[in-house]
């Protein structure tokens, strides 16, 4: 693995799809069951990565979204964070990935933005999760799945307190640019990413390709207006796939892997550097993204 920072604003890079979708296809459902699989049968998780690796992503995302202490407590796995982090790293190291991103998701604790104690409690959740990767071969922390700017702010503060790794930050947005929680907008989240030290500003959306591209352009415009040097990440969320679906729908515009090809080209033209197929994506989706942008540079300016 190599330091990922020198690649910023250079070549196009693709992130691996969520491994939890692959595990669901094997009948391993729910957060607790999937986390237990990582803890007790890490070789099963390694197998889930195998086909994804063949698809060609340059960045493998670890299945570690639930490693904040609060999430582990919900799963009945207090004190298992170190072991889970190590098993996640072992699941990918055999593939000799170019880059490894440690995913950390929302901690789920109530947050009172007017209370210093609440902010500190939330911030420390993310700091403790980030510390699990101290001294490991992780290239960046991936704060993913956030739906509110205040939660993201705490996460960025916590990770920045714990380590100097580059931070990829991503929020879930609707077609109109609102955050998935209904509290705030993508533009406000980008402001938080800039202020609190993210290296990559990202969003995930189920919206159709033209809308996703518009959201990417809005992120670039917001960054430019602030004179901020952040790369851009776009995650296209694949809805529940139905073999009988014959065309795009609002519920699932990415109904086949082929839909990723024009979407990837348009997102690159809008200045996106990092691409990911999320949701119920299969390795075929990752493969189309990787093939579409292979050998291409980021569109800057």
Characterize the largest beta sheet: strand count, sense, and whether it forms a barrel. Answer: 8 strands, parallel
Rounded radius of gyration (Å): 18 Å
| Low-confidence runs of at least 5 consecutive residues | none
Mean pLDDT: 95
Number of strands: 8
- What is the number of helices? 11
Q: Which structural class best describes the helix and strand composition?
A: alpha/beta
Distance between the first and last residues' Cα: 29 Å
Order of helices and strands: EHHHEHHEHEHEHEHEHEH
Major sheet: arrangement of strands: 1-8-7-6-5-4-3-2
Instruction: Estimate what percentage of residues fall within beta strands.
Output: 15-25%
What structural keywords apply?
globular; single chain; 301 residues; eight-stranded parallel beta sheet
Write structural notes for this entry:
This protein is of the alpha/beta class and 301 residues long. The chain is 43% helix and 15% strand. It contains eleven helices and eight strands. It has helices spanning 19-25, 31-40, 42-55, 69-74, 81-93, 116-131, 149-162, 186-195, 209-226, 260-269, 283-293; strands at 13-15, 59-62, 99-104, 140-146, 167-172, 200-205, 231-238, 274-279. Strands 1-8-7-6-5-4-3-2 form an eight-stranded parallel sheet. α2 (31-40) crosses α3 (42-55), α8 (186-195) packs across α9 (209-226) and α10 (260-269) crosses α11 (283-293). The longest helix has 18 residues, at 209-226. It is globular. The model has no long low-confidence stretch (mean pLDDT 95).
């Amino acid at each position: 693995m190599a330091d990922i920072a020198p690649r910023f604003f250079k070549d196009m890079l693709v992130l691996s799809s969520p491994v939890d979708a692959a595990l669901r296809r094997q009948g391993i459902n729910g957060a607790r069951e999937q986390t237990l699989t990582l803890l007790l049968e890490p070789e099963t998780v390694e197998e889930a990565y195998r086909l994804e690796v063949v698809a060609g992503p340059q960045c493998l995302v670890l299945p570690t979204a639930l490693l904040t202490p609060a999430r582990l407590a919900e799963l009945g796995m207090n004190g298992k964070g170190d072991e889970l982090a190590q098993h996640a790293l072992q699941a990918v190291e055999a593939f000799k990935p170019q880059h490894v991103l440690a995913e950390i998701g929302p901690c789920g604790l109530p947050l009172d933005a007017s209370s210093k104690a609440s902010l500190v409690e939330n911030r420390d959740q993310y700091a403790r999760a980030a510390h699990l990767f101290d001294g490991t071969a992780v290239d960046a922390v991936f704060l993913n799945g956030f739906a509110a700017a205040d939660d993201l702010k705490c996460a960025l503060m916590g990770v920045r307190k714990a380590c100097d790794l580059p931070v990829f930050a991503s929020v879930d947005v609707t077609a109109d640019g609102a955050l998935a929680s209904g509290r705030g907008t993508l533009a406000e989240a980008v402001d938080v990413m800039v202020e609190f030290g993210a290296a990559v500003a990202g969003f995930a959306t189920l919206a159709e390709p033209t809308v996703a591209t518009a959201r990417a352009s809005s992120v670039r415009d917001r960054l430019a207006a602030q004179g901020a040097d952040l790369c851009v990440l776009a995650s296209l969320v694949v809805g529940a796939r139905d073999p009988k679906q014959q065309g795009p729908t609002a519920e699932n515009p990415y109904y086949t892997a082929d839909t990723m090809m024009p979407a990837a080209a348009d997102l690159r033209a809008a200045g996106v550097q990092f691409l990911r197929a999320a949701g119920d994506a299969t390795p075929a989706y990752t493969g189309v993204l990787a093939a579409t942008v292979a050998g291409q540079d980021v569109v800057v300016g």
